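call fold(seq) -> tokens
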Amino acid sequence: MTVTATPVGQSDPMPPQAAPSAWRRWSVRLVPAAAAALSGLLLYVSFPPRTLWWLALPAFAVFGLLLRGRSWKAGFGLGYLFGLGFLLPLLVWTGVEVGPGPWIALAAIEALFVALAGAGVAAVSKLPGWPVWAAALWTAGEAARARVPFSGFPWGKIAFGQADGVFLPLAALGGTPVLGFAVVLCGFGLYEVARVSLEARRTGTVRRVAAAAGALSVAVPLVAAVAARPLVSGTAEDGTATVAVIQGNVPRLGLDFNSQRRAVLDYHARETERLAAAVDAGRAERPDIVLWPENSSDIDPFTNPDARAVIDRAARAIGAPVSVGAVVAKDGKLLNEQVLWDPVKGPVDTYDKRQIQPFGEYLPLRSLVGAINDEWTSMVRQDFSRGTEPGVFTMAGTEVGLVTCYEAAFDRAVRDTVTDGAQLISVPSNNATFGRSEMTYQQLAMSRVRAVEHSRTVTVPVTSGVSAIIMPDGTVSRKTGMFVADSLVQEVPLRSSLTPATRLGVLPEIGLVLAAAGGLGWAVGAGVRGRARR
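ret:
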């Protein structure tokens, strides 16, 4: 046997402890990174179509564990991974027909807002009562994400995952910002309670201020949700109206759903006439109001006599005013328009969609996008123009607020219809582009939150499903399947009182953003003073 000796004074090139030490160094980084992404995924699982709303609490508890005591740079990185874990699966529907590029780019950009919130949470995590400041910073991040770039993208606000949760009544108290803040605060509070408890078990002493802050962070949102419950009411204040929601279906799924635009119009007219026949036969209640979805007539009825005749015939058959979703060219502008169609007079009022979808209804940075991929520019050949006024139709004596599809994600777009007099809200939508993805269920959950926020019945007429009628307390009373022709008819309560959320508008969000700024300023000032003392 040959033995090779190491010369005296020369170290072993691979000492036995080197490999474990390297692994420990890597694990210090990899484990938190993986945990951040997985906790973001857990937050995604809490969203519809699942009813696991409570999973948002452990998701934020883990997020708080990962961020507390770290530098703002680490908070930024971990926040970005948390955002990707959440938004990549949540927004996968955006790539159903256009491929993974736009989907990944959207999630990557939106995750930057989560990263900034993560940096802020890390910065305030050593302050007394840090869960409050941290939850306010999350709300501030959502506020920014709802406004920039390109007028914002509020999809994935924490509030929209709580349609089945115990915190939902808070939507009536302070809107989606307060509802989301309460959920995040409770999640961070759960972590703080666990941390203080473990520390007390280890040291035998209890830090009373930290323990109280954690307990209050959990208890106050829950107590507030219970206290806000009386704000959620489904009783009629202004009588009732019988509404009919029409889902005509489309010839095919995907981006080419409207390649047979006349067929889509004919389908909705046929379903309306079928309902009229059922009414005449006594099999269905006669509606006061008929609601068609967005893009139910992609043929301009103002310039195409055939389309006008089809809608006229359907409206006369049902004998009630119909809100028709149409694509209209007017004064050189292309408009996504709701048209109020009287069975006798024809079109008598219009509402032009105000919050139009970037890269779907208009193309920002058109020359740059065209240089990257000219197929994208061909998909949006002409940009839609924005409307300027809230849409409220007077239909058979009922004030109906119009919030077209994408607009349901924006607080102001919904609130404006209620402050303008809407007694019920309609959210006409077209989800055929996104096939059988989760998108339609996510949007339905938004409408349920809006019903509670403003204490209004909300109808959701969709070209291909899921169409629904939602009571003012957020419960879905009737709904259709996907990609079937169907109609929903129901007598619904009309309401005119305003919830605190409707009255306050953006003020709760401003207050939470100011609280976030105050906490961040406190943390930065404390850090500067600490460095000066050293």
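The radius of gyration is 27 Å.
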